[in-house]
Write a structure and sequence with these properties.
By secondary structure, the protein is α/β, with parallel strands linked by helices. It is built from 3 helices and 3 strands; from the N terminus they run H-E-H-E-H-E. A 3-stranded parallel sheet has the order 1-2-3, covered by helices on one side. Helix 1 packs parallel to helix 2. The N and C termini lie far apart (38 Å).
Length: 93
């Protein structure tokens, strides 16, 4: 991705977002593997936030592997009512 133009990068990101949103329509739930990134626990990417929002909008289940990360989006992510698995995928039952 580093060797492409900013216009091409933007187009690819747009295509990836569109594809991920389309896939949400086909599933019953999403599983967010929110691990540590650059020292930040339970990190949620921007695109992942959008996927979580779309999943909530469609009334589907949301599972987080780890707790909601502290930060600017904490309230919004909490309002989307994900099931927190605390690292135990058996809780998805």
């Amino acid at each position: 991705m580093k060797d492409i133009s900013s216009t091409e990068h933007q187009r690819r990101k747009s295509d990836m977002l569109h594809l991920s949103i389309q896939k949400i329509y086909d599933v019953d739930a999403i599983f967010v593997l929110n691990l540590e990134k650059n020292g930040q626990k339970n990190y949620i990417w921007g695109a992942t936030f959008l996927e979580v929002f779309k999943t909530r909008e469609l009334g589907k289940k949301i599972f987080f592997y780890n707790p909601i990360p502290d930060g600017i989006l904490y309230d919004e992510l909490s309002a989307m009512a994900p099931m927190i698995l605390d690292g135990d995928i058996e809780k998805m039952g």
